[in-house]
Amino acid sequence: MNTEPSIFTGGGRLILGGFLAFVVGAIALVVGGVAHGRDAFYAYLSAYAWLVSLLVGGLIFLMIVHAMDAKWPVALRRVIEGVTGVLPLAVIGFIPIAVGITTIYPWTSPSTIHEHEVQHLVEHKLPYLNTSSFFVRAFLYFGVWLGISYFLRRWSLRGDWAPAATDKPRFRALSALGLPPVALAFTFAGVDWLMSLTPAWYSTMFGVYWFAGGFLGALALLVLATYGLQRAGMLTRVGSSHYYALGRLLLAFTIFWAYIAYFQFFLIWITNKPHEASFYAPRMREFAPLSILVAAGRFVIPFFALLPYRVKQQPSTLAPIALWILFMHWVDMEWLVMPSVRAEGPIVHWLDVAALVCVGGAALAFGTFRLRGRPIVPKNDTSLEAAFRYGSL
Predict the structure, then answer these.
(1) Positive or negative: CA dihedral 319, 377, 174, 71
(2) Is the CB of residue 214 less than 8 Å from the CB of residue 54?
(3) What is the structure's pLDDT at 283?
(4) Tens digits of per-residue pLDDT, 230-258?
């Protein structure tokens, strides 16, 4: 019998703390922007890419769960929906990027590019890389993400007050049909917002690289949120089997990320073309320490940490690893953005930390606020009891 607290009424301190972090980070960004100009925009872009990849990664995981009609994630579904519930905030968060587009992206002013060959390549890409189509595509990305997440959340919450069995076909149909456009929007957003920082460079694996990191980060965020709710006295029926399932996914997608990262580098290195090597050249010279940290922190450390069976079963040991993965995902975004725009360092600027505090604080406050007053589990879902008994059947 379900003994979970029915309504989530906590989170007041998280909302206040997140709001204060947002205010402090935003003030620091504004002050830093006056003093350092474009560095503030790049710091914000890195933090924003980190947040959006987590939110869309969470949406993709939620859609996979529905498409497969998986049972055990039902116990955690409201937490996943809490992550995707932050997506409306991402639309507002896009405003600074829209305002600073000419400062952030060199393709907006090809005549200012000093290298003649690069300028020539950028001019050939202008039918795609121009401000009008950039904003139209961003509108489409957010439209796809927000539309699908809105209906999945609405149907789920409606099921809290009435039997939800009739909505399961809707969940499955929308998720199965929506996964391709969501994934394509995710891929092209990575191309537009991150890869175009180096407009002469391209990689067909870049979108997959960003997806792999975002999906892995979303799983880590799910572990931390679940552990936090349990420590607050909620989700008490979530057991070691659920954490073990999440731990296996963390390990699997840590390996998947490393596979994508290695083969993107290997294929570009083996072809040895100057315009392709332009992405890795500064990352192997001025930003070599950051590259080493990304390789070790995103793969080597979590891979060996997640190998033991009992580590994945215990939330007290899995949560610190998840926190590390979440932090390293931000470091990875720094690695993607900063070497393209900050040729002489520093590797990490104080503005980067301020942007992370600002974006992370806003997301924490908004996401927690949207969870309040809602049941912490989809209480009328016919699969809920089976989800709680996962591992003991």
Answers:
(1) positive
(2) yes
(3) 87
(4) 998 888 889 999 999 999 999 999 999 99
Write out residues in the chain with pLDDT < 70, as ranges.
Answer: 1-6, 163-166, 343-346, 392-393
CB 149 within 8 A of CB 59: yes
Per-position DSSP letters for 244-299, written without gaps between them:
HHHHHHHHHHHHHHHHHHHHHHHHHHHHT-HHHHTTTHHHHTTTHHHHHHHHIIII
* pLDDT tens figures, 179-199: 999 999 999 999 999 999 988
Q: What is the pLDDT of residue 346?
A: 63
**Rounded to the nearest 10 degrees, what angle do helices 131-158 and 168-193 cross at?**
160
Distance between CA atoms of 339 and 23, rounded to whole angstroms?
A: 28
191 within 8 A of 137, measured Cβ to Cβ: no
Per-residue model confidence (pLDDT) at position 150: 95
Which segments of the chain are extended strands (E)? none
Q: Which pair of tokens denotes residue 329?
A: 């995902």
Structure tokens at 210: 């960003």
Measured distance CA(354)–CA(198) in Å, rounded: 24
Rounded CA gap, 114 and 112, in Å? 6
Are 72 and 390 spatial neighbours (Cβ–Cβ below 8 Å)? Answer: yes
Over residues 98-119, the pLDDT tens digits come to: 999 999 998 888 877 777 777 7
| 42 contacts: CB under 8 Å, gap ≥ 6 | 104, 337, 338, 341, 342
pTM value is: 0.94
Task: Count other C-beta atoms under 10 Å from residue 43's C-beta.
Answer: 30
- 5: exposed, middle or buried (C-beta count within 10 Å: 0-12, 13-18, 19+)? middle
Tokens 């995981």 appear where?
Answer: 61
Which structure tokens are listed for 77? 């579904």
- CA 2 from centroid of its chain's CA atoms: 32
Which residues are within 8 A (CB) of 300 and not within 5 positions of it... i.e. 6 or more apart? none
